Amino acid sequence: MYPLAFAKEGEEVVVKSINAGYGAVQRLSSMGINIRSKIKVVRNQNGPVIVSARGSNIAIGRGLAMKIIVERESDE
């Protein structure tokens, strides 16, 4: 398991935990990112991490991406 910020582009991952405050967790949840959500990393270069969740692209800042712990989908 590792932070979302370290995931490679094109990688499909499953969210294992979100180590952020209540407001950030609620905001992510409203965008479709919860524990056990499957997301795909669209872009991870300089700047925000862009992921695809439930058919929508979502930009997540680096700081928050470090608090979202994920695991490669095939590792389960």
Automatic annotation (TrEMBL):
Entry annotated with the keyword Iron: yes
GO molecular function, one term: transition metal ion binding
InterPro entries in the record: Fe-transptr_FeoA-like, FeoA-like, FeoA_core_dom, Transcriptional_repressor_C
Keywords: Iron
Pfam families: FeoA (PF04023)
Stretches assigned to the Ferrous iron transporter FeoA-like domain: 2-72
Record field: transmembrane: none
Alphabetical list of PANTHER family matching this protein: FE(2+) TRANSPORT PROTEIN A-RELATED, FEOA FAMILY PROTEIN
Protein name stated in the entry: FeoA family protein
Species lineage: Archaea, Methanobacteriati, Methanobacteriota, Methanomada group, Methanococci
